[in-house]
Amino acid sequence: MITGKAADRTVAVEVAPGGALQELTLEAAALRLEPDELARRILLLTAAASARATASLWHNADGVEALGLPEPGEAAEETIPDSWRAQ
């Protein structure tokens, strides 16, 4: 799970790999925000956490290729199997 928290800790979200929102936590101070501001914070935090969760799907912790994304510094062409190349 990936967590995103507002700088003032009034809003926190937790997303699953792939970005699905799993948990939303609001502190009492968050309820004093204007509705538009509260909605903006929730959406921004969810989007940022979702992006991190999606990125974590591409590589696992020990650097082994998970879903085919090239390793940093590796050209995408190097990941294409020879059997897929035009002959």
Automatic annotation (TrEMBL):
Region described as Disordered: spans on this chain: 68-87
Source organism, top-level taxon: Bacteria
Full protein name: YbaB/EbfC DNA-binding family protein
Source organism per UniProt: Amycolatopsis pretoriensis
